[in-house]
Amino acid sequence: MHDGTAFLASPPEGFPTDYLLARLKSRRPRLDVSQHPGIRERALPREPQSPPGLPQGGVREEYRWVYRQMDPGLRKRFAPYFLWFELRSILIALRHLRYGEKELVPLSIAGSMLSPGVRVLFSSAGAPFADASPLIRLLQAQVSDARQLAAWYREGKGREYERKVVSLYLEGVGRERLSTPVGLFFALLTDVMNLVSLAKQLRWGVPDTAAFMDGGTIPRQLLCDELQKGGRELDRLLRKTVLRGTTESVPERVEHALLTRLTGRIRGEARTRSGEAFILAYLWECHLRARNEALRFRAGSFGEEGLATELIA
Hints:
This protein has 14 helices and no strands. The protein has about 325 residues and is an all-alpha fold. It has a domain at about 50-175. The longest helix is centred in the first third of the chain and has 27 residues, at about 70-100.
């Protein structure tokens, strides 16, 4: 199993899982933003191609706190989850470097959980996608992928290399033997990104089967077949996937419906399995509350009615 803790900071030993669970259960009520509005997520500029959800402020602090409490074995099992959220920090930092905004790089990784070995990427003159760089090792990229990423980075093709970074990471994680709750999270997350990509391609009329990733609960070939059919059965596929009502095939609504489905599954696992499933649900709720609060902060751009359709309860 790929040890993701090598790319994260190394805190002291940590505590037994039962102790951590007790602490999290006592902290769980703080995630009710109606009573405790202190867990926030700050929007960053120019970020449409990044993975969803960068823990900022209180959320990032909470993630660091949870990671510090874990014992080494638990950290290893949850490292893929933490690294997924740190991946956005990496992409934002690379974007600043590409735009010649080196002075902004420290802001994008301030408070990050990334190890010194990864952070050095943003302060050295070396190429971030060199064959032996920490980023290439984190992505488990083959030599051909590393060279393609390096070429896109040199050519300023941000959309291409950012999308490839995300797909390499998710597909790499999907090949790992993950714990049940972490594996479920990434399978459902891959479904979200694949189905949103399908909806966008159908809406814009720009087919691109290379955008679909392996590792979800919906086979990649099924998505390719649906794209070839022109989306004739997309509504049926969405209804079957979401398991409730009829969702619109507009990309934004597809994403909301699928994130709601993911949230329901994660919460359900926490109720029935407890243990690591509860820890994962706690971490996801931190992100979710921060996401909802960020939406409320920006509510003026789409109004209260639009806000109600964006929040995930």
